[in-house]
Amino acid sequence: MELWLDEQLELKNGRAMKMRVVKTLDSIKTPFQQIDVFETQAFGKVFTLDGVIMMTESDEFSYHEMITHVPMMSHPNPEYVLVVGGGDGGTVREVLKHSSVKEVHLCEIDKGVVDISRKHFPAIAKAMSDKRVVHAYEDGAKYVKKNKKKFDVIICDSSDPIGPAEVLFREPFYRGMEGALRDIGICSTQAESFFYHGDIIKALFEFIPKVYKEYGYYYTTIPTYPSGIIGFTFLSNKVNPYKVEPDIKRLPKGLRYYSTELHKAAFVLPEFAKKFVKRSK
After folding, report:
1. Count of CB atoms situated within 10 Å of the CB of 117
2. 82 to each of 102, 121, 167, 187, how far by Cα in Å?
């Protein structure tokens, strides 16, 4: 009998990403969520939380490169970086491709995510063992509040706004991030798909202009996320995302998705999506 994975997130809306499962590799229940790892026919190993796809071996690079290198290449000298969530290690891996980085704080509420990633995705997770990485297993909203004026770049690599990640889509967390930024600071956050989640994006941009002077929304394409795209907020008090000219001399080698040309193009939205987003001038 064939086994198929139907992603749970969009089923209530009558749509789902479906993939053929070769075998189940792991299944554990942590205090926070259900974690499963599957070997699939089309996408290699797949990591899910509570039935929602977090990462696949085949396309994770398009997500991790864009959530990371857009803010990193927009900052003149990123030395201290915070990754909230991101326990699979992909964002940490991309951050450490920048030679200016002195320290990366990884704040992941569920240590089980890190442990299972190290077990099943060692090529992605090995960056978390770098000596520059500081591990914190706690609530990201609380972590930013106690680290005032510490980080050049904050990347919120969160799951969807359900369960333990719900707090990361609320105004108090965005204010906490703003307080944790150094003078020239930039944040990027996972901000859903403009095809499916316009209500969530619109709600974010109702309060973002109250917290940050500069802000925008950009996106990447990724086959295994709902609608085939995922978006991000860009937040700062000093750096206007629409005026950034990425320095190609700082571009890490060996990237598969991000480029300086794509960096600028990613902020160009379809006409229908513009109604969800507010942008600084």
Report:
1. 25
2. 11, 22, 17, 9
C-alpha–C-alpha distance, residues 100 and 107, integer Å: 21
pLDDT of 1: 66
pLDDT, residue 168, reads 81
Q: How many domains does the chain have?
A: 2
Which is nearest to 192 in space by CA: 121, 276, 131? 276
CA-angle at 204, arms to 52 and 182, nearest 5° = 100
> In Å, how far are 28, 45, 150, 180, 251 from 34, measured between CA atoms?
6, 17, 33, 31, 37
Q: How far apart are CA 73 and CA 249, in angstroms?
A: 10
CATH code of the domain in which 39 resides: 2.30.140.10
CATH of the domain at 107: 3.40.50.150
Looking at the structure, do residues 99 and 216 belong to the same domain, yes or no? Answer: yes
115 counts as catalytic:
no
Residue 264, judged by CB atoms within 10 A of its CB (0-12, 13-18, 19+), counts as middle
Shared domain check, 117 and 12:
no
Backbone φ and ψ of 271, nearest 5°: -60, -45
Helices (H) and strands (E) in the chain, counts: 8, 12
Residues of the chain with pLDDT under 70: 1, 159, 161-165
Find the distance separating the first CA and the last CA of the chain, reported in whole Å.
56
Query: Alpha-carbon distance 73 to 252, whole Å?
Result: 10
Beta pairing partners, 223:
none
Check 157, 160, 199, 247 and give the catalytic one: 157
Rounded to 10 deg, the angle between the 171-180 and 198-211 helix axes is 40
- Alpha-carbon gap, residue 188 to 100, rounded angstroms: 18
**What does pTM read for this prediction?**
0.96
